């Protein structure tokens, strides 16, 4: 999941965004995702969003697939983003289950049915916890997957993520959903190994440790569970730090790694103080051997 870099004046920095794409590709990411919550998408204007999506799509073309974020509170806005996803050749569009539909299973099903009528792009249903989403139960999510053939993937981020992934994949009605390609984790990669052990086909963490996450995923898929666990244990302090500071941590790490020029953020939330910067430096030093091999640009 790509961050949106800004310059010191708070304007989108396209050159740095393209370097993030390069960094993700060099790190071994199987695809890039843009924009989403980790991209500060709510702080982007429509024009900025379209312009940045175009830049990411061009940079990714022929290198890695693009999953485009198409979330919005209403159907019309999401439909607009889905049209954009088709225009730029995205392999899927990620659409968050709106928090306004919390507790309304029929309304959620209708929401995705309306979106599916106007797009040929496969949809990834993002089930996020409050306040961003509503954290729908797995029976409701399974009902949407079965009822809407365009919904081919689920991204599960409500905790406990692992138990919820198990609950979804064990729903007997999914046996009738031959279009369903699988569930992915998120939540910053903090529960990645548990998610994979329970049947997740992948994950979508933020991008500051893309190289570590890609190596962890490859180790797991290659049967090296001990190696995957070692990488997980070493990176977890940074992931816990990111859970608190979110965009501020992601961008500061990208800046320190030479991927972006400025760690400016638009989104609300805690900022790093002097001690936080010092602590982050210590944690990065502790995993420096895992980070050095990835080129940028």
Number of DSSP-assigned strands: 7
Structural class: alpha/beta
Task: Characterize the main sheet.
Answer: 7 strands, parallel
Superfamily (CATH H level) name: Aldolase class I
- Assign an overall shape: globular
How many helices?
12
CATH topology: TIM Barrel
- Measured distance between first and last alpha carbons: 18 Å
Q: Report the CATH architecture.
A: Alpha-Beta Barrel
> CATH top level?
Alpha Beta
Number of domains: 1
Q: What helical percentage do the residues reach?
A: 40-55%
Low-confidence region ranges:
none
Strand order of the largest sheet: 1-2-3-4-5-6-7
Averaged pLDDT: 96
Radius of gyration, in Å, reads 18 Å
Write the H/E string, N to C. Answer: HEHEHEHEHEHEHEHHHHH
Strand content: 5-15%
Write the layout of secondary structure elements.
Layout: H1 14-27, E1 32-34, H2 46-60, E2 66-69, H3 75-88, E3 92-96, H4 105-117, E4 123-127, H5 138-147, E5 151-156, H6 161-169, E6 182-185, H7 192-197, E7 202-203, H8 210-221, H9 225-245, H10 247-256, H11 274-286, H12 288-291
Parallel strand pairs: 1-2, 2-3, 3-4, 4-5, 5-6, 6-7
